[in-house]
Amino acid sequence: MTSVAQWPALDRVSGDLEGQVYRLMRDRILHGHMPAGQRVPSTRGLAISLGVARSTVVNAYDRLKAEGYLQSTTGAATRVAAFPSPLLGQSETLKPNLPQAIEFASGGLFEPGVPDVAAFPHAAWARCLGARARSLRVHDLGYSAHGGIRELREAILDHIAATRGVVARPEQVVIVPSTGAAINLLASVLLWADHPNDGVIWIEDPGYATAHALFRMAGAALVPVPCDGEGIDISRAAGPPPRLIYVTPSHQYPTGATMSLPRRLALLEFARTNGAIVLEDDYDSEFQYASRPIAALQGIDRGEVVAYLGTFSKTLAPGLRVAYAVVPSRLIASVEAAQRLRGAVVPVHVQAALADFIREGRFRAYLRRMNGVYAERMAASVVALKRHCGAWLYVGAGGGGLQLASWFRDETVDDLAAMHAVNARGFALRAMSSLHLGPARPGLLLGIARMEAAAADAAAAKIAGALAVATVSG
Predict the structure, then answer these.
(1) Where does 395-437 have alpha helices with state H?
(2) Which residues form the HTH gntR-type domain (predicted)?
(3) Using CA atoms, how far apart are residues 230 and 275, in angstroms rounded to an integer?
(4) I need a labelling partner for 386 at 20 to 30 A (CA). Which of 42, 242, 272, 367 fits?
């Protein structure tokens, strides 16, 4: 059993004692100081030793169990889980796919990828924006802050460090207009840069169609890597080693799966050993309904191989045009140079207003409120779809995010034809096959953000009517 006396004292001034206990034990496990199978201290004993409430330790242990670091069975002691060897390494220094157009219906019911902008906090945002527009500082108005003003970098970093476990310095945060702009920027820096693996990208399959298109436009050769209930499985990759690996580990798009801890560690070790960079798109991670959000992959990266991508398009509104990348230290200079040349910047008054919006606690308050709203809509959508469409579809659990995956029970169904039949009735669903690069499992992807709970049942019944016709005629 690990000695609590060897642990550093908790920082009671900064607060978040639960998070501190969680991170202390997680880091000891990852560094091999607590090997697999080792019994951990009892929650009561650890609470007494650290001088905290037992509930604080219980909640920290629950997080560690949820993320796969600890395991326990009824009547038995809690022990460190078994997974691949810890990441102790230090940082180390084809024929392209042609672009292809991807078109999806928009504006209809159950449209994926869009938040409920009707709930946007207009008054609070207007106050922040108006105040900053009138009082911008002189040095923020020049060319020097092309990577983002320091206030916003620090505010974002404080937020994602507390909520997502990201570990970085403000200099590593780069402000961009969208996740797509971040992907473009990093692709321009990392591809075709005299690297042994040149333009090869491993990418989740199924995956984010916009990322597919952006990487193709950059001239990359895409290697689809299958995803299952534990996320991307790099052991099943069939292709040349990659320069980039694009993943959505916390809430896989579109399946909703969370990457397991063994696969996270294996991915990080593979990237470090092969000189690859992992692009972690933290898609939909802010919204979790069945449990608290899983910590970001970047937070356990000890080799600086992860570039972390986040956006305010899904949490606030796409029209703000603000996203960010947290890049490894060795990439800061090249990313900033590329950004300066490309002009992928966000207006300074918007950046300053957003910094205030975050610092004043308005963003966190809005997220808490919308998490409740979206949880209700997701639950209503799942129930309605299972009731009306269960004869045709397996419906996902809907434990988080704004997307809900479903798959046809009959795997011979043409999901593109079914999608068109449903969308002709006022919907904007997407066929799962359109999100695959390799062999596809037919299904439909739905967005729940704008589906009022009271309207979900009628909408699902309407989908069922379209599927009844489409699957018979198909």
Answers:
(1) 415-423
(2) 15-83
(3) 24
(4) 367
Residue 155: left (phi > 0), alpha (psi -120 to 50), or beta?
alpha
* Separation of alpha carbons 324 and 310, rounded Å: 5
| CB distance 458 to 383 below 8 Å | no
Residues in the chain: 474
pTM of the model: 0.82
List phi, psi (to 5°) of 404. Answer: -135, 120
**Full set of structural domains in the chain with CATH:** 4-80 (1.10.10.10), 121-363 (3.40.640.10), 370-473 (3.90.1150.10)
Q: How far apart are the first and last CA of the chain?
A: 62
Distances (CA, A) of 460 to 36, 202, 360, 383, 409: 46, 36, 40, 9, 17
The CA distance from 307 to 39, in Å, is 34
Local confidence pLDDT in tens for the 474 residues of the chain: 445 555 667 776 667 788 888 888 887 787 777 888 888 888 887 877 777 888 888 888 888 888 888 888 776 788 888 765 444 433 333 444 444 444 556 678 999 988 998 889 899 989 998 888 777 654 455 555 678 999 999 999 999 999 999 999 999 999 999 999 999 999 988 886 655 556 889 999 999 988 998 898 888 889 999 999 999 999 999 878 899 999 999 989 999 999 999 999 999 999 999 999 999 999 888 888 877 777 899 999 999 999 999 999 888 888 889 999 999 999 999 998 888 887 778 888 899 999 999 999 999 999 999 999 999 999 999 999 999 999 999 999 998 889 999 999 999 999 999 999 999 999 999 999 999 988 889 999 999 999 999 999 999 999 999 999 877 654
Distance from C-alpha of 407 to C-alpha of 396, rounded to nearest angstrom: 8
Torsional class of 100: left (φ above 0), alpha (ψ -120 to 50), beta (otherwise): beta
Judge contact between 326 and 168, C-beta under 8 A: yes
- 3-state class (DSSP) for residue 244: strand
Query: DSSP secondary-structure letter at 245?
Result: E
Angle between helices 362-389 and 122-134 (to 10 degrees): 150
CA–CA distances in Å: residue 275 to residues 196, 224, 242: 9, 19, 8
